[in-house]
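Note to self: keep these together.
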Amino acid sequence: MVCAGAVLTVTLTACSGFGGDEASTKDPRGTGASAPSGADRVSLVQKLGQDGPLRSLNVEPDGRWTCDDCAGDGVTSTGTLDPEQVTRLHGLLADPRLAQETDQVRQYRATCIDALTSSLLTSVGLITTQDCPGEERPPVAYEILLLLTQATPAEPTA
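Structure:
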């Protein structure tokens, strides 16, 4: 069985720097405008069963992403979400309902064996789901998951 704690450890290691400090959100050009904050940063870690490859996707506030083993081929891919996807992602990450979908609030426990386990790390916390019968999908987190998986490669890009 996939241990949610193991996925959390990998996720936290891959995503240090969430929330950031105030200085990192200031516009470097000194115009007084704020750049997107750590609240607009998200990471996704997915694993199929115990022995499947670990897919790790990190998305920056400006939409740039890096995906390790995105297609299960051991390759690191990079890209950028289009402006519409970035706007949609920021809206979903700012949705107040997201805070009620964290593993802590839901008291989530992984229950399926050999299922695809997806863990999102957001500024409000970790949100884990599994693709198994009867699994309740948190609606906002699931929309984020769909957006990220549809916008990044799921096949080898060589």
